[in-house]
Design brief:
binds S-adenosylmethionine, binds iron/sulfur cluster, 329 residues, TIM Barrel
């Protein structure tokens, strides 16, 4: 098992498949993109599947989520999913994506063994989508969402970040739309993980702001507190149910004490936290011929170094060197 010194067990693995992306969301990447990882630095498909196998068979990981950058840009995605689905014990498999291209691949991903998707969509207005992502691909995302639902990648979750002055008036509209489409909406507070270091605590839209805005149109009742468990989203029942809405208050109500995450970057580094400033290199050991047991031990050792919390409230907090897209959100 991956147990840290605070007694938390990391059972949920986030695997970043690429740092590249076809959007340029303002809270994530600069307009010109970033210096992408060189191909030889990326883990190969075989290396990824080997590390996931070690995580699942030796380290107690039960959930694997593929992310990025944009994971649909990884040519081997369907085959990676298929090989991970063949592992025993079989991990639950999910994908976080911006949805572009999902209309083409949703059925193949489902057939390969993917269980669920989270699709990121921050606005229902195409022109606001263009401003937020710097690309005119709004309809592609809507098509991707519909294809995911039709393929049975359910429950389809939608991740939305609200940005002041851009889409912060859209929370109720997004919820009405998501309920109507049978998608489960989750709002994520904007975090200081953008490459441009443009995040300001004063300006961010908080969970409280989001809930106040939703309550102007919906009756929200908290789900049983126990149901949150280690899940970062606090969930509310909408207008008596069955619809739910989640709010991930990573900044204002962090859930570090119950964190069960471990992360593998596209270049084979273990990160114990989104906000960690340290990484542990698995790729070097793997390519130097380490055995499964040695790689598992490196992963356990990295986990023992996991800090109690994100440090966001510490006056000395420094943003991690890598932005969200290179860590794997
Ligand atoms: N490209 C895929 C996508 O957008 O879903 C996967 C990677 S993206 C980094 C994962 C999630 O992180 C998305 O839902 C995105 O909205 C969110 N995200 C990116 N930057 C963020 C930030 N600074 N604060 C909060 N969430 C952020
Ligand atoms: Fe790309 Fe996702 Fe970052 Fe947007 S949030 S730029 S879609 S990686």
């Amino acid at each position: 098992m991956l147990i840290d010194t605070y007694g938390r067990a990391a059972t949920d693995l986030r695997v970043s498949l690429t740092d590249r992306c076809n959007l340029r969301c303002t809270y994530c990447m600069p307009e010109e993109g970033l210096a992408w990882l060189a191909k030889p630095d990326l883990l190969t498909d075989d290396e990824i599947v080997r590390l996931v196998r070690i995580a699942v068979t030796e380290l107690g990981v039960t959930e694997v989520r593929f992310t990025g950058g944009e994971p649909l840009l990884r040519p081997g995605l369907v085959s990676i999913v298929e090989r991970c689905a063949a592992l025993r014990p079989r991990p639950r498999l999910s994908l976080t994506t911006n949805g572009i291209g999902l209309a083409r691949t949703a059925r193949a991903l489902k057939a390969a063994g993917l269980d669920r998707v989270n699709v990121s969509l921050d606005t229902l207005r195409p022109e606001v989508f263009h401003t937020l992502t710097r690309r005119k691909r709004h309809q592609d995302v809507l098509d991707g969402l519909a294809a995911a639902r039709a393929a049975g990648l359910v429950p389809v979750k939608v991740n939305a970040v609200l940005m002041p002055g851009l889409n912060d008036d859209e929370a109720p509209d997004l919820l009405a739309w998501a309920v109507g489409c049978d998608y489960e909406l989750r709002f994520i507070e904007q975090m200081p993980l953008d490459a441009q270091h443009g995040w300001k605590r004063d300006g961010m839209i908080t969970a409280e702001d989001i809930l106040a805005s939703l309550r102007t149109r919906f009756r929200l009742t908290p789900e049983d507190g126990a149901a949150r468990g280690s899940a970062p989203a606090e969930r509310w029942i909408v207008d008596g149910g069955p619809a739910r809405v989640g709010v991930i208050a990573s900044v204002t109500r962090p859930f570090c004490a119950a964190c069960d995450r471990t992360r593998l970057t596209a270049d084979g580094q273990i990160r114990t936290c989104l906000f960690a400033r340290e990484e542990s290199d698995l790729r070097g050991a793997l390519r130097a011929g380490a055995t499964d047991g040695e790689l598992a031990e490196l992963w356990r050792r990295a986990t023992r170094g996991k800090k109690a919390g994100s440090g966001l409230d510490d006056p000395t907090f420094l943003q991690p060197r890598r932005p969200m897209s290179a860590i794997g959100g």
